[in-house]
């Protein structure tokens, strides 16, 4: 039986050390800021604080999906080396990148009829996607076959919970997630939205609370409502240049649910271009999204 490689994209927001530990490959996505285009390479490119400082200063960043040619370039050497490919993709509800990967798969099927390229839609983003990749890679290391891992992913993807809040409604306004009026009124009243990623992989506002600390507490409350055996889990938390707030959420989850293992990391510029500075996101396995 042929071996296989797990590939994902840089929207997972996981660290270079974790990438090496898991033995996975990461395809960089691109973003443009102040007229210059950057590749979102884990551990490289523009420093997180510098990126968010530019956003705070009024600069706007745009992002671009990976095209089919980018996937063909990434997958071909692996297929030529005699291995199959499992690509765990950024949510199709947020980007066309997953569709690009399917087009690349069709092209490569004719060139490598003896090899497999499997594309799995994570329906996830940021370290939610990262947590799914982390758990999948662990199961591969335990010896799960490609078919076995695909089955595990299908059974578990909708248990991957994303809960997050933003500090500045204007970034959601630019992305069409809230209206200009709602952004203006919410900013004046100190309203902070709490959002999640739904079963179709879309970003959905769920509730609004007054004040920053209450919004962070609401993330923890959502985890208390749905988490499956939280004390046994590894929990991921990502943030948009607001480490102290992420650490506050970690401390609350640790105290209330007995979680011992956490990974915290920055929200990278591809996701951060849309969520903005001050975003805090909490990721875990739950009974439902």
Secondary structure topology:
Layout lengths: L3 E6 L6 H7 L2 E3 L1 E5 L2 E5 L7 H9 L4 E4 L3 H13 L3 E6 L7 H15 L5 E5 L4 H16 L4 H11 L3 E6 L3 H6 L5 H10 L1 E7 L5 E8 L1 H15 L7 E6 L3 H15 L3 E6 L2 H7 L4 E6 L4
Parallel strand pairs: 1-2, 1-6, 6-7, 11-12
Antiparallel strand pairs: 3-4, 3-5, 8-9, 8-13, 9-10, 11-13
Helix pairs in contact: 3-4, 5-6, 9-10
Task: Please describe what this structure looks like.
The chain is an alpha/beta fold and 289 residues long. The protein folds into two domains: 4-157, Rossmann fold, CATH 3.40.50.10170; 159-285, Hypothetical Protein Tm841, Chain: A,domain 3. The chain has eleven helices and 13 strands. The protein has helices spanning 16-22, 48-56, 68-80, 97-111, 126-141, 146-156, 169-174, 180-189, 212-226, 243-257, 269-275, and strands spanning 4-9, 25-27, 29-33, 36-40, 61-64, 84-89, 117-121, 160-165, 191-197, 203-210, 234-239, 261-266, 280-285. The protein has a six-stranded mixed β-sheet with strand order 10-9-8-13-11-12, sandwiched between helices. Strands 2-1-6-7 form a four-stranded parallel β-sheet, with helices on both faces. The chain has a three-stranded antiparallel β-sheet with strand order 4-3-5, covered by helices on one side. The longest helix is centred in the middle third of the chain and has 16 residues, at 126-141. The radius of gyration is 19 Å and the shape is globular. The model has no long low-confidence stretch (mean pLDDT 93).
